[in-house]
């Protein structure tokens, strides 16, 4: 059941990041031009999408564990989803601040 709570927490963070991009780590240290590029290129939308997917994977892992009759599957999934999500945000999120693409 903890995986469901973690998933709901990730989805809530995703919605908050979409509305308040300052919640993302490192966003306040960007220059004004980089902040404008990040907004124009859709960094808050990307952050929201990553967090929502992280939440949905965490929730679906819990129900997959129940369906397969192995509830232990969802136990470590929260940590794994967090680690993979952070890597995706760091690696691909940097591309949104460089140049204006739109």
UniProtKB/TrEMBL annotation:
<protein>
    <recommendedName>
        <fullName>DUF3784 domain-containing protein</fullName>
    </recommendedName>
</protein>
<keyword id="KW-0812">Transmembrane</keyword>
<dbReference type="InterPro" id="IPR017259">
    <property type="entry name" value="UCP037672"/>
</dbReference>
<keyword id="KW-1133">Transmembrane helix</keyword>
<dbReference type="Pfam" id="PF12650">
    <property type="entry name" value="DUF3784"/>
</dbReference>
<keyword id="KW-0472">Membrane</keyword>
<feature type="transmembrane region" description="Helical">
    <location>
        <begin position="73"/>
        <end position="92"/>
    </location>
</feature>
<feature type="transmembrane region" description="Helical">
    <location>
        <begin position="6"/>
        <end position="25"/>
    </location>
</feature>
<feature type="transmembrane region" description="Helical">
    <location>
        <begin position="46"/>
        <end position="67"/>
    </location>
</feature>
